[in-house]
Amino acid sequence: MRISALWTALLALLSINPTFCSVKRIGNNPGRFANATLVRLSEYLSTGYKKGVRPVRDWRQYTLVAIDLMVYSILSVDEKNQVLTTYVWYRQQWTDEFLVWSPEDFDEVEKVSIPTANVWVPDIVINEFVDVGKSPDIPYVYVSHDGLVRNYKPIQVVTACTLNIYNFPFDVQNCSLTFQSWLHTINDINITLMRSPEEVMEDKSVFMNQGEWELLHVLTMSNSFTVDNVSYYAEMKFNVVIRRRPLFYTVNLLLPSIFLMVMDVVGFYLPPDSGERVSFKITLLLGYSVFLIIVSDTLPATAIGTPLIGVYFVVCMALLVISLTETVLIVRLVHQQDLQPRVPVWLRHLVLERAATLLCVRDKHKLCSSLLSSAPLPPYTENNLHTASHCTHHHHHHHSCNMARDAHGRGLGMGLPVRDPAPPIMDSILQEVAGIRGHLERQDESREVAKEWLQVGYVLDVLLFRVYLLALLTYSITLGTLWSVWQYA
Length: 489
What we know:
The protein is of the alpha+beta class.
């Protein structure tokens, strides 16, 4: 029994021994620890490292953090909420005095990547942050053998910005990104630029330049501030200056409005005594109202101000209303009927003489005469016919008496027979002719009155048109000059 037990134990040891040999062989395999130098370096740097302590040997010495910013894209500009969303490449670096090694001791390794969670990182934030953007997580930092730590990462920045939309769509916005340590004073953490301010200002190498906004430049300014006059904090401010590309808004907002205003001016060349001008201008006014409803969603909306283009649309609508009102008054003036009195003397002198001479439209009165000559005659009235017949009968009776007296005198003196009075048919014909003559006289008088009113209406129409055109040109030139200055400022 003892011999069998010994043999069993011996066989068991022999069966286990190859396993030990195999483990030893696997442990000596060079492929598994090909980067053993990096592992050894990582263990060397992490031994005794305290990531919660600022990495300086002399606590009186501040940590200098150099930062840099490159704008990659302008994602959105929310004028209503005064929010700017950008995508930037942010870089910061500092010296960690506890992450230092000699490259000769680690196979000439001069830099190594270490998880960000294992090293001290400065608490630098952006003051204007209002929301957390969708930024990718970069879990590593690069550490050089001299202790220089590089922390590079892209950030989607959602910041508050005071947006001035008065110059829309030719506006230029200046939004600031202020980097500062939230807790450490300037005695602990100081901030500087990684590059020169000129390089930062002119750098557009990574900017996506195909959107609505154009990057002009990025200005930098270093400053320090205090809250309680005791502790001072360092800050670095980047002013991102962007300009809107106005082509889309010019084509879709300004040009249709300009075309409608041009058609309103052209409408003044319709005859002032025709009703088509009123219908034409009402159609333009309705079309402009529909246009404003369509473009209302395109205009930026804020609670603190209205863009100048909104004022421009309102003024254009007011000009169309004024134009329609002027047209209605002129049409009403030139359609004075027979019951209207003659043009007052003062109005005839002021408009037909002074204003016509000033506007050089005196020769245009021939047009009024031709228009009046083509107007149809009003129908006869019973009163006019009765009055004409009465006057004709009285005239005919007086004429017949004179003829009879002459005939009687001639008959007495010369012995000629006396003629009979005119037959009744001739009396009726004379009455009708006299009525027609009276009606034509009144028609000529009515036509003369209408001619005077038409002349007054024509001169006033030319005067108001030129005043309207002058106001429209002045307004357009002023706006065009302002927008041109803003665009190329």
